[in-house]
Amino acid sequence: MINAELANIEISDLKALIDNQVPESKTIEYKMQLPGELDADKKEFLADVSSFSNTNGGDLIFGIKEEKGIPIEIIGIEIDDLDLVLRKYDQIIQSGLEPRITYETARIPLDASHYVIVYRIKRSWVGPHRIVFRGWDKFYERNSTGKYPLDTTQLRAAFNLSETIIEKIQRFRMERVNAVISNETSIPLNDRPKAIFHIIPQESFYPNAQIDMKLADQLKDQLYPIRSEGHYSRYNLEGIITYSGNAIENYTYVQLFRKGIIEVVFEPPISGEDKTKSYLYIYEFEKMLIHNIMRMFDVMKGLSIGLPYYIFMALTAIKGYRLWRSNSFSGRDDKFVNNNENIILPDFIMDADTEYPDRLLQPMFDLLWNSFGYEKAFNYDGNGNWK
Question: Hey, which CATH number is domain 6-150, 3.40.50.150, 3.40.5.10, 3.30.950.30, 3.90.550.10?
Fold first, then answer.
């Protein structure tokens, strides 16, 4: 893999590959030309891409000539409409692999019409990914000499590893929810209802996963708690925590774990001590999460924690509450009452960057409204935009 951030790769980085005779390996492969129009060419392309995703990730570089796996010359690829060409290959990747993979592309211009194209493919833990193009059903991984098809034993091991990661993520989440419910967190909580929100990167469960704590300390000001006018921060056994409250009880905190996981706990906007007249202000609740989640993602990016992320949400001590559906008095609704003490929603996966946190969170909010008896989250329009 090229030793540079994808967006910062320059011609000098490509020349360094040749000067240092960096060979093809598990994490890098050179191609002179982009795939052709034949089905065999597209299958070869998908095999290359999926083999990186199924192993350790890496860079697939087009526009460099190699001999026996050693790069010898930067050729570049002559392309008139580069965006059109890249969209075509994106479509091949999206439709030709199951499940979908996470990758990025960079274009390094050599002159006005010649480019080197780099596909940087993320290692996946939701695989193994198979090729489904034109009925082809193959799985590939990589070793130091290139890609190879998986046999039955190797395929079974790959599936077992993926399932193990998912099980660990789900077990960690439930342990943390139970810790909040039983008030066994590192700071004392009050006994009112709590919202628990987790962002769990898949790579947090890679072997030896660990964030740079010095860098995390520099980013901690972005982790101020939801619903706080002021907050404190300190190190703890788990990592770094920011919180609002006092020494006796707290109502909101953000915990950044040393493995890169973010846990957000806060008191949702509610009213009433009498459970027959108690409401969750769902409009304000949705607004809080939509307006705050992007800065959590920014911290992930600042720590170089890659996608995908598993997103979880739960509400505790919420039995007997109804929904106040909008930000006006007319939003009060006594039609349905929640009969679950705790609402623990299933996960969903964020596998691509987004500029629209409202759309990202809609499936979660739909399920939350379902828990209170409603068909869907009614604060969204027909296009998935939060109103």
Answer: 3.30.950.30
Query: Exposure of 266 by Cβ count < 10 A (0-12 exposed, 13-18 middle, 19+ buried)?
Result: buried
Indicate the pLDDT class of residue 332, thresholds 50, 70 and 90. confident
The stretches of the chain forming alpha helices (DSSP H) are: 11-19, 39-54, 82-96, 152-181, 213-219, 282-302, 357-371
Residues 86-123 have pLDDT tens digits of: 999 999 998 899 888 888 899 999 988 899 999 999 88
Please give the mean pLDDT across all residues of the chain: 89
- Alpha carbon distance 141, 49 (integer Å): 10
Q: Coil, strand or helix: which one is 79?
A: coil
Global confidence as pTM: 0.66
- Three-state SS sequence of 16-77: HHHHCCCCCECCEEEECCCCCCCHHHHHHHHHHHHHHHHCCCEEEEECEEEECCEEEEECCE
Q: Where are the domains of the chain?
A: 6-150, 159-371
3-class DSSP assignment, residue 195: strand
CA distance 137 to 140: 10
